[in-house]
Design brief:
This protein is α+β, with helices and mostly antiparallel strands. The chain contains two helices and four strands. It has a single domain, classed as TusA-like domain (Translation Initiation Factor IF3, 2-Layer Sandwich), CATH 3.30.110.40. It has helices at residues 16-26, 43-54; strands at residues 5-9, 33-38, 57-64, 67-73. Strand 1, helix 1 and strand 2 form a beta-alpha-beta unit.
Length: 76
């Protein structure tokens, strides 16, 4: 999937993946996509809830070799 920006949050524990995601998505324009890589298992529920509350859309999430990847489309 094509992403405007990639955020490497591997090795960071909660709440740092969310903190870094908020900062990175603030730099994008509405409709652009942020790809996030994290190893924190709690990120799956945290990022899903955060995206929903912020009006963003999770386009896809996959887990490969212990790395969870998310693609979040910035809302309006």
């Amino acid at each position: 999937m094509e992403a405007t920006k990639v955020l490497d949050a591997k090795g960071l524990a909660c709440p740092m993946p969310i903190v870094r995601t908020k900062k990175a998505i603030a730099e994008l324009e509405p409709g652009e996509v942020l790809e996030i890589h994290t190893t924190d298992q709690g990120s799956k529920s945290d990022l899903t809830a955060w995206a929903k509350s912020g009006g963003h859309e999770i386009l896809e999430d996959v887990e490969e070799d212990g790395v969870i990847k998310f693609w979040i489309k910035k809302g309006e």
